[in-house]
From TrEMBL:
Membrane-spanning segments: none
Subcellular location: Endomembrane system
Main subcellular localisation: membrane
Gene3D superfamilies, A to Z: Transferase(Phosphotransferase) domain 1
Protein name (record): POMK
Keyword Transmembrane helix: yes
Organism: Cordylochernes scorpioides
Coiled coil: none
InterPro entries associated with the record: Kinase-like_dom_sf, POMK
Keywords of this entry: ATP-binding, Kinase, Membrane, Nucleotide-binding, Transferase, Transmembrane, Transmembrane helix
Membrane-topology annotation of the record: Single-pass membrane protein
Entry keyword Transcription regulation: no
Length: 264
């Protein structure tokens, strides 16, 4: 598949691409997010996902997503960028949907474990990416986290929504948004640490990629669901206990977890 010619000035090539892609869209959207309308279409005979900006207010998120797709592609861990033009973004199409659709396909135990490993491999890639250590900030709930990944037909995951991947720079941390976070899915260091005092964003301490490690057991348990293998549960218990260390510096890295999962 050839890359769509890149353009940004809205000239004739851009109008031509818009016309061809829009003409190939099905009447119904695949899905919609705050940032994007996503359709299925065709380009040079291939099915593709066509994303258009939902509102100008999300232009910054749209641009960050595009920047990450450009800088992280090609990679087996990130959805393939086919091309872009103006407010249109074209990526490879995965008909099996997002990670939350996994159980529709009745995966076996080896497939479920493969998904756990695949999830960690994506995190390892993002934490050691060509553009620095990146944190998945659109992951404040299990449901939201699952929607960030697409399921391939050979039961692997690829990161798809990259509009909130801040970089952890040496000696610095990140903060995922400007609102107070709640719940047990997010890591302890993402919670407001000052008790009854009112939340103030500028007083919230930053954190790093180890927040992603904290969430791994919850995501993997969702993939496994009612799996009853005693051997698997025993092995995972020790690994996941490491991920849930209250001290983020004592949690293993994603690379270390890949090694542990590969010997299950």
């Amino acid at each position: 598949m050839d890359l769509i010619k890149v353009c940004s000035n809205g000239g004739e090539p851009c109008r031509s691409i818009h016309k061809e892609l829009e003409g190939s869209c099905t009447p119904a959207k695949l899905y919609q997010t705050w940032t994007l309308y996503v359709y299925i279409g065709k380009w040079q005979g291939y099915h593709v996902a066509i994303s258009s900006l939902a509102s100008p207010r999300y232009k910054e998120d749209f641009d960050h997503n595009l920047e990450m797709l450009q800088k992280l592609s090609p990679s087996p861990y990130v959805v393939q960028l086919v091309g872009f033009c103006g407010d249109i973004l074209v990526t490879e199409f995965h008909p099996w949907g997002s990670a939350r659709d996994v159980h529709r396909h009745q995966p076996t135990l080896p497939m479920k474990l493969q998904l756990c490993l695949s999830y960690i491999q994506v995190l390892a890639f993002l934490h050691n990416s060509p553009v620095g250590t990146r944190v998945m900030c659109d992951s404040n709930t299990l449901e939201k986290t699952l929607t960030q990944f697409l399921l391939t037909e050979d039961f692997h995951l690829v990161a798809n929504d990259l509009d909130a991947l801040p970089e952890v720079k040496p000696g610095q941390g990140v903060k995922c948004g400007h609102e107070q976070l709640h719940g047990t899915f997010v890591a302890p260091e993402q919670l407001w640490p000052y008790g009854e005092l009112s939340f103030e964003d500028d007083q919230m301490p930053p954190y790093d990629e180890k927040t992603d490690i904290w969430k791994i057991p919850d995501v993997c348990h969702w993939f496994l669901q009612d799996e009853t293998s005693v051997r698997v549960k025993q092995k995972l218990r020790g690994i996941h206990h490491l991920c849930k260390n209250e001290n983020p510096t004592l949690r293993p890295s994603a690379k270390e977890l890949v090694d542990l999962y590969q010997i299950l």
